[in-house]
Automatic annotation (TrEMBL):
Transmembrane segments: none annotated. Belongs to the ATP-dependent AMP-binding enzyme family. Residues 316-335 are annotated as: Disordered. GO terms for biological process: fatty acid metabolic process. Pfam families: AMP-binding, AMP-binding_C. The lineage of its organism: Bacteria, Bacillati, Actinomycetota, Actinomycetes, Kitasatosporales. Residues 409-482 form the AMP-binding enzyme C-terminal domain. Residues 19-359 form the AMP-dependent synthetase/ligase domain. It comes from the Bacteria. PROSITE patterns: AMP_BINDING. GO terms for molecular function: medium-chain fatty acid-CoA ligase activity. This is Cyclohexanecarboxylate-CoA ligase.
Length: 503
């Protein structure tokens, strides 16, 4: 990390980081979207105006403001404005629906809710009305604007909880994960250091900015002073022209992202799909070693993969100067300040980038051990060189395209469907998604054979988010169970259906 980045990484709050970068390189571009560009100086100025507009509407330090917005410049402006005010912001992934959004807003007691109006055919404003959200405003049609001279002093305490992110965990309802400005700055600093980025790079944000990776990526831009291209929706090959036009040098996301780019490369072997691209980086889902080797061999770029979660967005990360065998088979090394302890094969964490806990105090108490280490539920070991190898998860969570999906939530809804006797939902290895969602069901005697289309229609009507709907259905005579509590043995289902074609 450069001396400048090290210095900026000492910022106490996100707003202080925005302000210091704007003073250092006000004319350098930070955000690019379609034909729009925003410099670091313009970012600070616009965020202050939005903050003043929010202040006039009643948003104060500590006010909880939830927002469910796609990856757009206005989203970053709202984030910066809330950071300027010292409000508590609660980002919600854009494709969550009534069930998840209603729970999140109620649990965090949000006083305001920013939505994108109608986005990709779904009316978020109407949903906000159905769930009784307070202080609803369309951030794309009515982003507040005001006079910055009316603002109170910016926040100075970077250790106060100012972020509530949501993760499905192992229960039906999402869990509210508590972060501070300092924990997010620590995560972004570690990521930037591992990737060896420079001010000459051009990045890209092709994933939901509401994901905790959005804030971490913003921190990276502020530390190193380089720009990123924003994608409101991401699809290939449509996005390739944007990558080429803006000469993107580093891109990333989850395992699915690597696979998509590799598929495009295979359509034009020998000719780089993005000539300026030098580095792919990401995490959030398992990475098969063969995928690493194929990307390096066929695309001619480096691939570094890491390990993170909503509770600790940057745990380990592969570095471009790591050995190929480490990049292919491990999740990288922890940065300075991240302690990893392996207890009975389970990964535990302690460091500034780790969350403060959960909204539910009971969940917090259960998540940390007596020494203050976060109990991840992931299984793994450290190599002699300090690289982390993950071998599985104790948590019953499916990670599809970097997003956590609760199996129990889907199972509970499946049990409401006529024709389902018992149900188990599992994640199966998938080269594109990391894991795909598979529903395995028993049917009562005499029931009409169930179809995947019927299952999907039922779950949609129940308000389940689209990305959680199973892509595979398997009907079995009986689910495998143990001999004591008759608990379903999901590992047997994974063994049986791994490699099976999507039904």
């Amino acid at each position: 990390m450069t001396d400048t980045a090290h210095s900026l990484g000492d910022s106490r709050t996100l707003w202080e980081l925005i302000d210091r970068r704007a003073r250092l390189t006000p004319g350098r571009t930070v955000l690019i979207q379609d034909e729009r560009r925003l410099t670091f100086g313009e970012l600070r100025e616009a965020c202050e105006r939005v903050a003043a507009g929010l202040y006039a509407r009643g948003v104060r330090p500590g006010t909880v403001v939830a927002w469910q917005l796609p990856t757009r410049i206005e989203t970053v402006l709202l984030t910066g404005a809330l950071a300027r005010l010292g409000a508590v912001q609660s980002p919600v992934i854009p494709f969550y629906r009534d069930r998840e959004v209603g729970f999140a807003l109620g649990a965090c007691a949000a006083g305001f809710f920013a939505v994108p109006g109608v986005w990709r055919g779904f009316d978020h404003t109407a949903m906000a009305g159905r769930i009784g959200a307070r202080g609803v405003f369309d951030a794309y049609r009515d982003l507040p604007d005001g006079d910055p001279s009316t603002l109170p002093p910016p926040p100075a305490d970077g250790t106060a909880v100012r972020w509530i992110y949501w993760t499905s965990g192992t229960t039906s309802d999402p869990k509210g994960v508590l972060h501070t400005d300092r924990s997010l700055i620590a995560g972004g600093s570690c990521l930037a250091h591992a990737l060896r980025l420079t001010p000459d790079d051009v990045g890209s944000i092709a994933f939901p900015f509401a994901h905790i990776g959005g804030a971490d990526y913003l921190v990276m831009l502020l530390l190193y002073g380089f720009p990123a291209v924003l994608f409101e929706t991401f699809a290939l090959p449509e996005a390739l022209g944007t990558y080429r036009r803006h000469q993107v040098t580093t891109a990333g996301g989850s395992t699915a992202f690597y696979s998509m780019l590799l598929a495009e490369q295979r359509r034009q072997p020998g000719e780089p799909v993005v000539p300026t691209l030098r580095l792919l980086a990401g995490g959030g889902a398992p990475k098969p070693p063969e995928l690493y080797h194929a990307v390096v061999r066929e695309m001619g770029v480096q691939l570094t993969h890491g390990y993170g979660m909503t509770e600790a967005p940057m745990i380990t990360m592969g570095s471009p100067d790591d050995r190929p065998e480490d990049l292919a088979t491990t999740e990288g090394r922890p940065p300075e300040g991240m302690e990893i302890r392996i207890v009975d094969g389970e990964v535990r964490l302690r460091g500034e980038a780790v969350c403060r806990g959960y909204l539910d105090p009971g969940q917090t108490a259960a998540a940390f051990d007596a020494d203050g280490f976060l109990i991840t539920g992931d299984l793994g070991h450290l190599t002699g060189s300090g690289h982390l190898v993950l071998t599985g998860r104790r948590k019953d969570v499916i990670i599809r395209k970097g997003e956590n999906i609760s199996a129990r939530e889907i199972e509970d809804l499946l049990h409401e469907l006529p024709g389902v006797g018992e149900a188990a939902v599992i994640g199966l290895p998938d080269a594109e998604r990391g894991e795909r969602v598979c529903a395995v069901v028993e049917q009562p005697d005499g029931a009409r054979p169930l179809t995947l289309h019927e299952v999907a229609a039922h779950l949609r009507s129940a308000g389940l988010a689209v990305h959680k709907i199973p892509e595979q259905l398997e009907v079995v005579d009986s689910l495998p169970r143990n001999d004591t509590l008759r608990k379903v043995l999901k590992y047997k289902l994974r063994e049986r259906f791994t490699g099976a074609d999507t039904a």
